[in-house]
Design brief:
Strand order of the largest sheet of chain A: 2-1-6-3-4-5
CATH class of the largest domain in chain A: Alpha Beta
Number of helices of chain A: 25
Oligomer: heterodimer
Helix content of chain A: 25-40%
Order of helices and strands of chain B: EHEEHEEHEEHEHH
Radius of gyration of chain B: 20 Å
Low-confidence stretches of chain A: none
CATH architecture of chain B: 2-Layer Sandwich
Structural class of chain A: alpha+beta
Number of domains of chain B: 1
Structural class of chain B: alpha+beta
Number of helices of chain B: 6
Largest sheet of chain A: 6 strands, mixed
């Protein structure tokens, strides 16, 4: 086999033993890599119905086909476990050196079972596996942990995926971080924390051989050069933060806990402002010629020196969404999240829920007592100092930080049960995950895509806002086309997440990002790497299969139609300001769109998957278990 | 200390432009070994914190310390190009040259038991492959003299905005 070693490493933390699994080439042709392979391994290795924090929940890491080759943006891996945020599949992607080292060590994937009694970090030294005592690493931030491991092993080529203090404390939305990049959103860091797994480090010394290196090099250098042109200028120059002003113009910029879609203070937290005042350097993931990470630093004031990479999603969640218009505060908040390894989106939205709860008089100063403020403090929209203190309390699970560290769903239901309140009405989550930075009330297709997301509402797993924003459909109304559009978008994204390739490269193949523009090059890249003979029509099923295994996983974990829903606010409160004023997604509209979507997917009206569909996609064993 | 002169070319990386993508390492290892393995690359990226990143390859020092250090006389410097030539018969991979190099530009191949040093892709028609592939044009084949020229120009440009407004405009008649 080219492009794969054919070997999957299993590690049992409870028994401290390892074994190797060999899968046939046919299995690789079905699952490819990334989130698809990771999710499939999660399906195969989990005990269904288990608590996400139990030893029965495996950590599944899957490389991509292109890791360690010159294929641009192919250095990404998938990470899957049952999510403590949603109770459904938690599948994340991250990029850079870690996955390349793992590939060079000769492993296509790693599955980590069980739980350790004492803190451990695993060192994969090619085919030698070492369980190391991680006590000395406790309390270190994500990048610090990586550096400490490199220093201890005396090798700067060792690459690690780690958790920071948030993961150790099992903040429910903690991330796994490698090389400064986050496998974010669904709480992998908390799962690692539950296993007392501080880090997985790799030294990989083998070369990668591909089937046709000449062809692969020619294809790759073309894409490398194209990636310096207009197709990526948005990402290269300002990064995704450029969305701040664009979203605000459309009335879609989540503001003050999603109460509105326009923010009066947007100018000073825009990508343009950031570029002018705080940008230090642009950096790339390994194997990426684009470089979108805008490393930004606070240069003056109490938080001077705080530095991290800033992207749109973190910026909105900790900026407009908190009513904060000071860029230094936003950078500080994001750096608290990144260095301690927690999801900056969920963190921001949980704080904004707490701010609204405070402003409505349900939380009081009393609730915010901490070491720094023994008398408590007021948590109001726009108060940067209070927001930073709250973020640190979440990280450390201090005081009310313990409640907030469980995210908006659990925090609001706990308060509502204790105090007889209705804070769920402004708890912004669906399936327990906080949404992305697009006000879905003004984006009907995206509201469908968000409701049906297998890991919750997510901007990476669906780009169903594209037809809305580009005017392909009327973004304020619903019709029968939305089901097909949502299906198309999530399965297109699933192809990229499976190879995986970063979606920022999508226009660099031919100038057009649609299937006709991208799939022919992707077919050639796969064939040159693996020696397979895939055709154009083989690409779509890769995405559909990847999406389907995640949905099947959820069904086995008890998913039902009513789980595909939206936050209360998005379904009941119209926005009052800006170009999207007056709009929301009613229950009737959502249910109608869900009907259209399940039909487009070839599923039943209840959203279940017919046996025939699963067999058609090459998974008869899944059909046996959950097919109808 | 190595004493560089303007005599020899070498591959230089501009740390302001380098994004740390390592594409140079893939291409180098493929060109030299037929497989992608950054451990076999003769140019290496190095990153010491989140934003300090560059790539390093042989700087073709004059009176190269690696040549002087070799106890087997296995290394020679081409007098025209400055490129270090390795005599495979003599090299026993003792790594004294590795220690002597101030730039970490020499590595030992564990399979062949020979040291490996950038040869600026002398055997490639279109020159150094890392320079050809570098997406940000951070890598270039240059000499110390060219580098100094660039530094002088950059220094002047950086104060241009300050100086220009102060230069009185001459009255012109025509």
């Amino acid at each position: 086999m080219f492009g794969y070693s054919g070997k999957i490493l299993h590690i049992d933390l409870t028994e401290r033993k390892t074994w190797v699994e060999n899968k046939p080439e046919e299995w690789y042709k079905l699952w490819i890599g990334g989130v698809s392979m990771a999710s499939r391994l999660c399906w195969e290795n989990i005990k269904p119905g288990c608590d996400p924090y139990s030893p029965d929940n495996p950590v599944c890491i899957a490389n991509g086909i292109f890791a360690g080759t010159p294929v641009p943006v192919g250095g990404k891996y998938g990470l899957a476990s049952k999510s403590p945020m949603t109770g459904f599949i938690g599948d994340s992607l991250s990029g850079s050196w870690f996955t390349i080292a793992l590939k060079r060590a000769g492993w296509d994937a790693v599955v980590i079972h069980g739980a350790s009694e004492s803190w451990v970090d695993i060192f994969i030294d090619d085919d030698r596996i070492e369980f190391r005592d991680a006590t000395k690493l406790l309390g270190l931030g994500t990048f610090e942990t990586e550096e400490a491991i490199r220093e201890a092993l005396n090798d700067d080529q060792v690459r690690s995926a780690t958790i920071g203090p948030s993961g150790e404390n099992m903040v429910r939305f903690a991330n796994v971080t490698n090389d400064g990049r986050q496998a974010g959103r669904t709480g992998h860091g908390a799962v690692w924390g539950s296993k007392k797994l501080k880090a997985v480090s790799v030294r990989g010394t083998h070369g990668i051989k591909v089937a046709d290196p000449k062809a692969l090099n020619e294809l790759s250098i073309h894409i490398v050069k194209e990636a310096q042109g207009p197709h990526t200028s948005k990402y290269r120059i300002l990064g995704t933060s450029t969305n701040m002003l664009n979203m605000n113009k459309l009335g879609l910029l989540p503001t003050r806990n999603y109460s509105e879609g326009v923010f009066e203070g947007v100018e000073t937290i825009s990508g343009e402002y950031l570029h002018e005042h705080n940008k230090v350097k642009t950096i790339a993931c390994a194997q990426c010629p684009i470089a979108c990470e805008q490393m930004s630093m606070v240069k003056t004031g109490p938080w001077a020196g705080a530095m991290t990479g800033i992207e749109y999603e973190c910026l909105f969640a900790n900026g407009s969404n908190l009513g904060v218009d000071d860029i230094n505060t936003v950078i500080k908040l994001i750096s608290v999240a990144d260095s301690s390894g927690m999801d900056a989106i969920s963190m921001g939205i949980t704080i904004s829920w707490a701010m609204e709860t405070f402003e409505k008089g349900i939380f009081t100063k009393e609730d915010f007592k901490c070491e720094k403020y023994p008398e408590g403090f007021e948590l109001r929209f726009g108060d940067g100092e209070a927001a930073v203190t709250t973020a640190e309390m979440i990280r450390d699970k201090e005081g009310i930080g313990k409640l907030l560290s469980d995210g908006t769903r659990i925090a609001s239901s706990t308060i509502d049960a204790e105090r007889g309140t209705e804070t769920y009405k402004w708890a912004m989550h669906s399936k327990g995950l906080e949404p992305a930075g697009y006000e879905a009330r003004g984006l009907k297709t995206f509201s469908l895509g968000s409701a049906v997301g297998t890991r919750g509402p997510c901007h990476n797993r669906t780009a169903a806002y594209d037809p809305d924003i580009q005017g392909q459909v009327d973004r304020f109304s619903v019709d029968e086309t939305r089901g097909e559009l949502a299906k198309d978008s999530e399965e297109y994204a699933a192809v990229y997440d499976t190879l995986p390739l970063c979606k920022f490269i999508r226009r660099c193949f031919t100038g057009k990002a649609d299937r006709a523009g991208a799939w022919p090059t992707i077919v050639n890249l796969i064939n040159a790497t693996t020696g397979w003979d895939l055709q154009y029509e083989d690409i779509d099923p890769i995405g559909e299969r990847a999406h389907t295994i995640k949905k099947a996983f959820n069904i086995r974990e008890g998913w039902k139609r009513s789980d595909d829903t939206l936050p209360y606010r998005w379904m009941n409160e119209p926005m009052t300001k800006g170009p999207s004023a007056g709009h929301f997604t009613s229950n009737e509209e959502l249910e109608y769109m869900k009907d259209c979507y399940y039909e487009a997917k070839g599923w039943t009206k209840e959203g279940m998957i017919p046996k025939s569909k699963l067999i058609e996609l090459g998974m008869p064993d899944v059909a046996e278990e959950i097919g109808v | 200390m190595p004493s560089s002169t303007s005599k020899y070319q070498y591959i230089d990386c501009d740390p302001d432009l380098c994004i740390g993508c390592q594409i140079c390492e893939y291409v180098c290892s493929y060109t030299k070994t037929g497989e992608y393995n950054t451990y076999r690359s003769r140019i290496r990226t190095v990153r010491v914190d989140e934003v300090l990143i560059t790539a390093l390859a042989c700087r073709t020092c004059e009176n190269a310390p690696c040549v002087l250090a070799c106890p087997q006389d296995a290394l020679d410097q081409d007098p025209d190009t400055g490129i270090i030539v390795i005599n495979a018969q003599k090299c026993d991979a003792c790594a004294w040259c590795v220690e002597a190099c101030d730039f970490g530009a020499i590595s030992v191949n564990p399979l062949t038991k020979l040291v490996e040093i950038c040869d600026q892709c002398e055997d490639q028609e279109d020159g150094p492959q890392c320079v050809k592939w570098c997406p940000k044009e951070a890598l270039k084949l240059t000499t110390p003299e060219k580098q100094a020229q660039k530094a002088r120009r950059d220094a002047l440009k950086s104060i241009k905005d300050e100086i220009l407004p102060k230069i009185p405009l001459k009255e012109t008649t025509c």
